[in-house]
TrEMBL record:
Protein name, entry field: DMT family transporter
Domain EamA per the UniProt entry, residue ranges: 8-114, 127-248
SUPFAM superfamilies on file: Multidrug resistance efflux transporter EmrE
Pfam families the UniProt entry points to: EamA (PF00892)
UniProt keyword list: Membrane, Plasmid, Transmembrane, Transmembrane helix
Keyword Cell membrane: no
Transmembrane segments: 12-29, 41-63, 69-91, 100-119, 125-145, 152-170, 182-200, 212-231, 237-256
Tagged with keyword Transmembrane: yes
Cited PANTHER family: ACYL-MALONYL CONDENSING ENZYME-RELATED, BLR4310 PROTEIN
Amino acid sequence: MHMLATQAWTILFWRSLFGAVFVGGFALLRGEPVLIWETLAIGRLGLVASILSSAAMLAFIPALRHTSVANVALIFATLPLVIGIISRLLVDEPLSARSAAACVGVLLGAAVIFWGSAYASEASLVGDMLAVVMTVAMALMAVALRLYQGRSVLGVVMLSNIMTMIFAALMSTSLTVSLREVAILACFGLFQMALGLILFSVGARSLPSAQVALITTLEAPLSPLWVWLFFDDRPKILTVLGGALILCVMASYLFAEGRQPSGSGNLDGDAKRDGIR
Protein backbone atom coordinates (compact mmCIF):
# COMPACT_ATOMS: atom_id res chain seq x y z
CA MET A 1 0.00 0.00 0.00
CA HIS A 2 3.02 2.25 0.35
CA MET A 3 3.28 2.19 -3.46
CA LEU A 4 -0.30 3.37 -4.05
CA ALA A 5 -1.81 6.79 -3.42
CA THR A 6 -5.27 5.70 -4.59
CA GLN A 7 -8.23 5.69 -2.19
CA ALA A 8 -8.91 2.42 -0.36
CA TRP A 9 -12.20 1.65 -2.16
CA THR A 10 -10.55 1.96 -5.56
CA ILE A 11 -7.76 -0.38 -4.49
CA LEU A 12 -10.30 -2.88 -3.20
CA PHE A 13 -12.24 -2.77 -6.46
CA TRP A 14 -9.28 -3.38 -8.75
CA ARG A 15 -7.53 -6.02 -6.69
CA SER A 16 -10.82 -7.91 -6.25
CA LEU A 17 -11.50 -7.63 -9.99
CA PHE A 18 -8.08 -9.07 -10.78
CA GLY A 19 -8.54 -11.69 -8.07
CA ALA A 20 -11.82 -12.87 -9.64
CA VAL A 21 -10.24 -12.91 -13.12
CA PHE A 22 -7.25 -14.96 -11.96
CA VAL A 23 -9.46 -17.42 -10.07
CA GLY A 24 -11.60 -17.85 -13.19
CA GLY A 25 -8.48 -18.39 -15.29
CA PHE A 26 -7.21 -20.94 -12.80
CA ALA A 27 -10.51 -22.81 -13.03
CA LEU A 28 -10.36 -22.87 -16.83
CA LEU A 29 -6.79 -24.19 -16.76
CA ARG A 30 -7.99 -27.01 -14.53
CA GLY A 31 -10.84 -27.71 -16.93
CA GLU A 32 -13.65 -26.49 -14.68
CA PRO A 33 -16.02 -24.51 -16.92
CA VAL A 34 -18.82 -25.00 -14.36
CA LEU A 35 -17.23 -22.51 -11.96
CA ILE A 36 -20.04 -19.97 -12.34
CA TRP A 37 -22.66 -22.62 -11.61
CA GLU A 38 -20.71 -23.71 -8.55
CA THR A 39 -20.61 -20.11 -7.39
CA LEU A 40 -24.37 -19.69 -7.77
CA ALA A 41 -25.13 -23.06 -6.13
CA ILE A 42 -22.55 -22.61 -3.42
CA GLY A 43 -24.72 -23.58 -0.48
CA ARG A 44 -25.37 -21.89 2.84
CA LEU A 45 -21.98 -22.49 4.48
CA GLY A 46 -20.16 -21.61 1.27
CA LEU A 47 -22.11 -18.36 1.07
CA VAL A 48 -21.30 -17.57 4.71
CA ALA A 49 -17.61 -18.26 4.05
CA SER A 50 -17.69 -15.95 1.01
CA ILE A 51 -19.31 -13.12 2.98
CA LEU A 52 -16.76 -13.49 5.79
CA SER A 53 -13.88 -13.52 3.31
CA SER A 54 -15.26 -10.37 1.70
CA ALA A 55 -15.59 -8.69 5.10
CA ALA A 56 -11.95 -9.49 5.86
CA MET A 57 -10.88 -7.97 2.51
CA LEU A 58 -12.91 -4.83 3.16
CA ALA A 59 -11.25 -4.37 6.56
CA PHE A 60 -7.70 -5.12 5.43
CA ILE A 61 -6.89 -2.14 3.19
CA PRO A 62 -8.42 0.53 5.51
CA ALA A 63 -6.52 -1.07 8.40
CA LEU A 64 -3.23 -0.60 6.54
CA ARG A 65 -4.20 3.00 5.75
CA HIS A 66 -4.83 3.84 9.41
CA THR A 67 -2.11 1.91 11.24
CA SER A 68 1.25 0.32 10.49
CA VAL A 69 1.91 -2.91 8.60
CA ALA A 70 3.56 -4.26 11.75
CA ASN A 71 0.42 -3.68 13.84
CA VAL A 72 -1.83 -5.37 11.26
CA ALA A 73 0.52 -8.34 10.83
CA LEU A 74 1.00 -8.90 14.55
CA ILE A 75 -2.72 -8.71 15.32
CA PHE A 76 -3.35 -11.14 12.46
CA ALA A 77 -0.78 -13.49 14.00
CA THR A 78 -3.35 -14.30 16.69
CA LEU A 79 -5.48 -16.05 14.05
CA PRO A 80 -4.78 -19.65 15.19
CA LEU A 81 -5.98 -18.93 18.70
CA VAL A 82 -9.01 -17.00 17.48
CA ILE A 83 -9.91 -20.00 15.31
CA GLY A 84 -9.54 -22.29 18.32
CA ILE A 85 -11.78 -20.12 20.49
CA ILE A 86 -14.46 -19.77 17.82
CA SER A 87 -14.33 -23.51 17.10
CA ARG A 88 -14.88 -24.16 20.79
CA LEU A 89 -17.87 -21.81 20.90
CA LEU A 90 -19.55 -22.76 17.61
CA VAL A 91 -18.71 -26.38 16.86
CA ASP A 92 -17.73 -27.56 20.32
CA GLU A 93 -14.14 -28.42 19.45
CA PRO A 94 -12.11 -28.78 22.66
CA LEU A 95 -10.06 -25.82 23.88
CA SER A 96 -7.10 -27.09 25.87
CA ALA A 97 -5.56 -25.50 28.93
CA ARG A 98 -2.54 -24.74 26.75
CA SER A 99 -4.74 -22.79 24.35
CA ALA A 100 -6.38 -20.88 27.18
CA ALA A 101 -2.99 -19.92 28.62
CA ALA A 102 -1.80 -18.83 25.19
CA CYS A 103 -4.91 -16.66 24.82
CA VAL A 104 -3.93 -14.76 27.96
CA GLY A 105 -0.43 -14.13 26.63
CA VAL A 106 -1.71 -13.02 23.24
CA LEU A 107 -4.24 -10.68 24.81
CA LEU A 108 -1.47 -9.07 26.87
CA GLY A 109 0.63 -8.56 23.74
CA ALA A 110 -2.34 -7.13 21.85
CA ALA A 111 -3.07 -4.79 24.75
CA VAL A 112 0.48 -3.41 24.52
CA ILE A 113 0.05 -2.81 20.77
CA PHE A 114 -3.31 -1.11 21.30
CA TRP A 115 -1.82 1.02 24.06
CA GLY A 116 0.88 2.20 21.68
CA SER A 117 -1.71 3.02 19.00
CA ALA A 118 -3.96 4.88 21.42
CA TYR A 119 -0.95 6.88 22.57
CA ALA A 120 0.05 7.64 18.96
CA SER A 121 -3.25 8.72 17.43
CA GLU A 122 -6.94 7.93 17.17
CA ALA A 123 -6.44 6.84 13.55
CA SER A 124 -3.92 4.18 14.58
CA LEU A 125 -6.38 2.79 17.10
CA VAL A 126 -9.06 2.62 14.38
CA GLY A 127 -6.61 0.73 12.17
CA ASP A 128 -5.91 -1.76 14.95
CA MET A 129 -9.64 -2.33 15.45
CA LEU A 130 -10.08 -2.97 11.72
CA ALA A 131 -7.22 -5.50 11.92
CA VAL A 132 -9.14 -7.25 14.72
CA VAL A 133 -12.28 -7.30 12.55
CA MET A 134 -10.25 -8.80 9.69
CA THR A 135 -8.77 -11.48 11.96
CA VAL A 136 -12.13 -12.49 13.44
CA ALA A 137 -13.71 -12.62 9.98
CA MET A 138 -10.90 -14.87 8.70
CA ALA A 139 -11.26 -17.12 11.74
CA LEU A 140 -15.01 -17.47 11.20
CA MET A 141 -14.33 -18.17 7.51
CA ALA A 142 -11.89 -20.93 8.42
CA VAL A 143 -14.43 -22.61 10.69
CA ALA A 144 -17.16 -22.30 8.03
CA LEU A 145 -14.87 -23.84 5.42
CA ARG A 146 -14.04 -26.65 7.80
CA LEU A 147 -17.75 -27.50 7.89
CA TYR A 148 -18.37 -26.73 4.21
CA GLN A 149 -18.98 -29.87 2.17
CA GLY A 150 -19.04 -28.37 -1.33
CA ARG A 151 -16.97 -29.93 -4.10
CA SER A 152 -14.59 -27.01 -4.63
CA VAL A 153 -13.52 -23.88 -2.80
CA LEU A 154 -13.04 -21.99 -6.07
CA GLY A 155 -16.65 -20.82 -5.92
CA VAL A 156 -16.09 -19.43 -2.41
CA VAL A 157 -13.01 -17.48 -3.50
CA MET A 158 -14.68 -16.23 -6.69
CA LEU A 159 -17.85 -15.09 -4.94
CA SER A 160 -15.96 -13.29 -2.16
CA ASN A 161 -13.98 -11.31 -4.75
CA ILE A 162 -17.15 -10.43 -6.68
CA MET A 163 -18.88 -9.27 -3.48
CA THR A 164 -15.92 -7.08 -2.53
CA MET A 165 -15.65 -5.65 -6.05
CA ILE A 166 -19.33 -4.66 -6.16
CA PHE A 167 -19.31 -3.11 -2.68
CA ALA A 168 -16.11 -1.18 -3.39
CA ALA A 169 -17.50 0.10 -6.69
CA LEU A 170 -20.58 1.44 -4.89
CA MET A 171 -18.48 3.16 -2.22
CA SER A 172 -15.71 4.57 -4.41
CA THR A 173 -15.92 8.09 -5.85
CA SER A 174 -13.60 7.18 -8.73
CA LEU A 175 -12.24 3.94 -10.15
CA THR A 176 -9.59 5.63 -12.28
CA VAL A 177 -6.03 4.36 -11.81
CA SER A 178 -2.76 4.78 -13.70
CA LEU A 179 -1.11 2.00 -15.73
CA ARG A 180 1.54 1.64 -13.03
CA GLU A 181 -1.12 1.20 -10.38
CA VAL A 182 -2.96 -1.31 -12.57
CA ALA A 183 0.23 -3.41 -12.78
CA ILE A 184 0.72 -3.29 -9.01
CA LEU A 185 -2.92 -4.15 -8.32
CA ALA A 186 -2.79 -7.01 -10.83
CA CYS A 187 0.13 -8.54 -8.90
CA PHE A 188 -1.78 -7.91 -5.68
CA GLY A 189 -4.85 -9.65 -7.09
CA LEU A 190 -2.85 -12.63 -8.33
CA PHE A 191 -0.53 -13.37 -5.42
CA GLN A 192 -2.56 -12.26 -2.41
CA MET A 193 -6.18 -12.37 -3.43
CA ALA A 194 -6.41 -15.34 -5.81
CA LEU A 195 -3.49 -17.60 -4.93
CA GLY A 196 -3.47 -16.65 -1.25
CA LEU A 197 -7.19 -17.19 -0.72
CA ILE A 198 -7.20 -20.46 -2.66
CA LEU A 199 -4.36 -21.88 -0.58
CA PHE A 200 -5.89 -20.63 2.67
CA SER A 201 -9.29 -22.05 1.75
CA VAL A 202 -7.82 -25.45 0.85
CA GLY A 203 -5.87 -25.52 4.10
CA ALA A 204 -8.93 -24.56 6.12
CA ARG A 205 -10.83 -27.54 4.69
CA SER A 206 -7.96 -30.02 4.92
CA LEU A 207 -6.76 -29.46 8.48
CA PRO A 208 -8.34 -29.36 11.92
CA SER A 209 -9.31 -25.82 12.87
CA ALA A 210 -6.62 -25.56 15.55
CA GLN A 211 -3.90 -26.12 12.92
CA VAL A 212 -5.31 -24.13 9.99
CA ALA A 213 -3.22 -21.00 10.44
CA LEU A 214 0.15 -22.47 11.47
CA ILE A 215 1.96 -21.06 8.45
CA THR A 216 0.14 -17.72 8.50
CA THR A 217 2.09 -16.69 11.59
CA LEU A 218 5.14 -16.26 9.35
CA GLU A 219 3.46 -13.11 8.04
CA ALA A 220 3.85 -11.41 11.42
CA PRO A 221 7.65 -11.06 11.39
CA LEU A 222 8.12 -11.01 7.60
CA SER A 223 5.63 -8.27 6.61
CA PRO A 224 7.08 -5.53 8.87
CA LEU A 225 10.59 -6.64 7.89
CA TRP A 226 9.99 -6.12 4.16
CA VAL A 227 8.29 -2.76 4.73
CA TRP A 228 11.14 -1.67 7.02
CA LEU A 229 13.80 -2.70 4.47
CA PHE A 230 12.12 -1.23 1.38
CA PHE A 231 10.23 1.78 2.78
CA ASP A 232 12.04 2.52 6.07
CA ASP A 233 8.72 2.20 7.94
CA ARG A 234 9.98 1.41 11.43
CA PRO A 235 7.49 -0.02 13.94
CA LYS A 236 6.90 1.75 17.26
CA ILE A 237 8.66 0.42 20.36
CA LEU A 238 5.36 -0.69 21.94
CA THR A 239 4.48 -2.54 18.73
CA VAL A 240 7.84 -4.33 18.92
CA LEU A 241 7.34 -5.24 22.59
CA GLY A 242 3.74 -6.38 22.17
CA GLY A 243 4.59 -8.21 18.95
CA ALA A 244 7.54 -9.98 20.58
CA LEU A 245 5.23 -11.24 23.32
CA ILE A 246 2.63 -12.43 20.78
CA LEU A 247 5.23 -14.18 18.62
CA CYS A 248 6.85 -15.90 21.61
CA VAL A 249 3.48 -17.11 22.87
CA MET A 250 2.37 -18.23 19.41
CA ALA A 251 5.69 -19.97 18.66
CA SER A 252 5.49 -21.92 21.93
CA TYR A 253 1.83 -22.77 21.38
CA LEU A 254 2.23 -23.87 17.77
CA PHE A 255 5.34 -25.88 18.54
CA ALA A 256 3.51 -27.73 21.31
CA GLU A 257 0.44 -28.25 19.11
CA GLY A 258 2.58 -29.50 16.24
CA ARG A 259 4.01 -32.26 18.44
CA GLN A 260 0.53 -33.58 19.19
CA PRO A 261 -1.07 -36.21 16.92
CA SER A 262 -3.45 -34.53 14.50
CA GLY A 263 -6.23 -36.98 15.19
CA SER A 264 -7.35 -36.60 11.62
CA GLY A 265 -7.14 -39.88 9.84
CA ASN A 266 -9.30 -38.87 6.90
CA LEU A 267 -7.23 -36.03 5.53
CA ASP A 268 -5.95 -38.02 2.55
CA GLY A 269 -9.44 -39.12 1.71
CA ASP A 270 -10.74 -35.58 2.05
CA ALA A 271 -7.97 -34.34 -0.17
CA LYS A 272 -8.79 -36.82 -2.90
CA ARG A 273 -12.49 -36.05 -2.72
CA ASP A 274 -12.23 -32.25 -2.87
CA GLY A 275 -11.90 -30.35 -6.12
CA ILE A 276 -8.64 -28.53 -5.29
CA ARG A 277 -5.69 -30.11 -3.55
